[in-house]
Amino acid sequence: MKALILTCALLTLSLQAGAADKGLTEEQMGLSKTSVNVDPDPATFEYRQADPSTSGVLPRAFSGAPPQVPHGIDDFIPITRDSNTCVSCHQQPDQIGKKKVKGEPTPLPATHYTDVKNNALHMGRYNCTQCHTPQANVNPLVGNTFKRK
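Predicted structure:
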């Protein structure tokens, strides 16, 4: 019995030693076939710098998607509860449900208010860029084969 245990232990150790010699090359590690030591620079891009009154409405990515920000927001950030430049133009509860006039800001929807009649904005909605994102002219990172019906 002792001989069997000793033989199994030696066999296990010899197999592990043989496997340790092979190892993996940098090219075999991970999904990327480049060196793990290379830190590539991301492509540079610029957000749209269109004027808010002339930028128009961008298409939504899918039904129910939040609207995209069609203008630059560099002058509006950081957006905080106490300093939110977005609401100075978009908080127009009297425009909810009415046809949008070209060149006028899109009003915040009723879902962003706790009380529309009293113009009471829900304070959990102050972080506009959590859902509404500015757009840049960049190539998609992943291809998309979705087709609308």
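Summary: Strands lie at 113-115, 120-121.
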